From TrEMBL, chain A:
This is DUF1214 domain-containing protein. Residues 70-169 form the DUF1214 domain. InterPro entries: DUF1214, DUF1214_C_sf. Residues 173-194 are annotated as: Disordered. The lineage of its organism: Bacteria, Pseudomonadati, Pseudomonadota, Alphaproteobacteria, Hyphomicrobiales. It comes from Pleomorphomonas carboxyditropha.
From TrEMBL, chain B:
Keywords: Membrane, Transmembrane, Transmembrane helix. This is DUF1254 domain-containing protein. The chain crosses the membrane at residues 6-27. It comes from the Bacteria.
Length: 194, 178
């Protein structure tokens, strides 16, 4: 009787440990197999090489970019490595690869878009203001309206930025960190860590 | 006693390892948010079904208009035809779980007219012969079922209305006659 009970307990403990470790390995950013460029992570829905990447792609629901289309970069951390918080304001500033159609989308970590009256959820290479000979962008993100290009994060409980670069050339030769903008904190609302 | 304890401990780790591997390998196929499987593509009469964040969990670019066409073993290879506007567009063939199998963009097709045959590698030649098509772009896939996703940049209101008109004119029908 005791041996049977112990046998059942061992099986249950093994299954539980296996499921918890799988869930943890898939969800832990430290084990993310995707390549990083500066603070941006390169998403790959092809996911041929790594079964963990296939699970992450399935969790994102698919819809990512293939090699003939371009590359998709995401970040959930600021330039100083702190997680992005919906209650904080950020500045996305710096260069973008030249001559490439790009879009920058603000969402939460589940991909839900902000619900602001302007229906503005991001900017593209066609509507973002650029500055200087390097055509650098300056886009503010936060709950309080700021001058210039601005996306309100109304209704979001977490924050993720997705930068899509539509160029097959960049899919084979990804841009360096010096060709991409950085995300820096502009401060947080009272009670939130900056 | 120690031997017995170690044996149980080893057994737990073996079962945990097998469960871990099984869960990771099976999870993509069992995901409840399988790309576009929840999108109703019936009754579209050869037109593509529009998708956005209201009818799919797929992570799509909101600056684009997106539409899908389903292919399966019953319908055989699909033929996608139509004319696209001058803005950026691309076509991706995806498995049911959202994995991208093949992609084409405006640069690959070198023009605004689309005439594309999509399906399993073995069925494409048969479909080409049966339909009497000699020269046509093909997307050769390793699966029988999945989706063709067409993305069309619609950055401003003018782009959006042109994109909607282009999507209305796109046709996606079985390549083999009934």
């Amino acid at each position: 009787m005791l041996a049977t009970l112990r046998f059942i307990l061992v099986i249950l403990a093994g299954i539980l440990l296996g499921l918890v470790s799988a869930w943890w390995a898939v969800g832990n950013l430290r084990f993310e197999g995707s390549r990083t460029i500066g603070q941006w992570s390169l998403q790959n829905d092809g996911a041929k090489a790594n079964p963990y990447e296939a699970v992450r792609a399935a969790r994102r629901g698919g819809g990512g970019l293939g090699p003939s289309e371009g590359i998709e970069l995401t970040t959930e951390v600021s330039a100083d490595g702190k997680p992005l918080a919906a209650a904080c304001a950020y500045l996305v500033a710096g260069p973008m690869p030249q001559g490439v159609l790009w879009t920058l989308t603000v969402s939460d970590r589940d991909g839900r878009l902000p619900g602001n009256p302007a229906r503005r959820v991001g900017f593209t290479s066609l509507d973002a203001m650029t500055f200087g000979p390097a055509r650098q962008i300056r886009i503010s993100i936060g709950r309080d309206v700021r001058p210039g290009d601005f996306v309100a994060t109304t209704g979001l409980s977490s924050l993720r930025l997705t930068l899509r670069l539509y160029s097959p050339t960049l899919a084979t030769r990804a841009p360096g960190p010096e060709q991409l903008p950085t995300v820096t904190s502009l401060g947080c609302e009272e009670g939130e860590a900056s | 006693m120690i031997d017995t304890g170690l044996r149980w401990f080893a057994a737990i780790f073996c079962i945990a390892g097998l469960t871990h591997i099984g869960a990771v390998l099976l999870a993509p196929g069992q995901s409840r948010d399988l790309a576009f499987t929840g999108v109703d593509t019936s009754g579209t009469d050869g037109r593509l079904a529009r998708v956005d964040n209201s009818n799919t969990a797929a992570d799509l670019d909101p600056a684009f208009l997106n539409a899908v066409c389903r292919f399966d073993s019953d319908s055989g290879p699909m033929r996608l035809t139509g004319a696209m506007p001058a803005s950026y567009w691309s076509i991706a063939a995806m498995a049911d779980d959202g994995r991208i199998l093949s992609t084409l963009s405006r640069e690959d097709l070198r023009g605004s007219d689309i005439d594309l045959l999509v399906g399993r590698t073995a069925a494409l030649d048969a479909a080409r012969q049966a339909a009497g098509i000699d020269s046509i772009e093909t997307m050769s896939l390793p699966v029988d079922t999945g989706f063709v996703l067409v993305r069309l940049f619609a950055g401003d209101l003018d782009d959006r209305s042109r994109a909607e008109e282009a999507f209305d004119r796109l046709q996606c029908r079985p390549a083999l006659p009934d």
